[in-house]
Amino acid sequence: MDSAFTLQPVTRADVPELLALIRELARFERLEHEVVATEALLAEALFGATRNAEALIGRKGGEAVGFALWFHNFSTFVGRRGLYLEDLYIRPEHRGRGYGRAMLTHLARLALERGCGRMEWAVLDWNVRAEDFYRSLGAEPKSEWRIFRLAGPALAATASSSGAPDANGQQTPEESP
Hey, which of 21, 30, 120, 151 has its CA 20 to 30 A from 113? Predict the structure, then answer.
């Protein structure tokens, strides 16, 4: 790996650059239409009163070549928090130089320092190159688990439902787990 490569925590001044990298990642993942994040939302999440996420930026000679953004979750089975890697992105022209590995190594060390029981992330099923890279580190896919998501109107509808069972103690079919 290039000795000019550095990892630094994202600062408030880096937020516009971080958002640009997030948009690049979204284009790569064919999900650009889902990006609604703004600089203000990112700044609040990273530096607000309730810090919801953390991020680092990788630079080579001052140029941003990628980023990682993560937060802590909790495992009831392990009884400890974990580190959930929301996004890891290296610009295509900088891939294959060890920058992604350096970011994952940094995060694995951070997870252990913070007493995390595990580190997890999701990979799009078509991103075979990423899957191969993660497997080379010893990461194992959890194929028996599927990610479910409530967002937009479905999230609002669920939040506005009573969630209470009917008079017979049954949930309606649309509420049954």
Answer: 21
In the structure, what pLDDT confidence band is assigned to residue 136 with cuts at 50, 70 and 90? very high
Buried-exposed string 116-130: b where 16+ CB fall within 10 A, e elsewhere = beebebeeeeeeeee
Kindly state the average pLDDT of the residues 43-54: 97
Q: Which residues are catalytic?
A: 134
26 φ/ψ angles, rounded to the nearest 5 degrees: -60, -40
Pairing outcome for strands 63-75 and 54-60: antiparallel
Instruction: Enter the pTM of the model.
Output: 0.86
Q: Are 85 and 120 in contact (CB under 8 A)?
A: yes
| Alpha carbon distance 161, 139 (integer Å) | 39
Q: What is the dihedral of CA 123, 126, 129, 132, to 10 degrees?
A: 60
C-alpha to C-alpha distance for 114 and 83, rounded to whole angstroms: 9
| Domains recognised in the chain with CATH numbers | 5-145 (3.40.630.30)
Q: Which residue has the tokens 């899957």?
A: 131
pLDDT at 123 over 70: yes
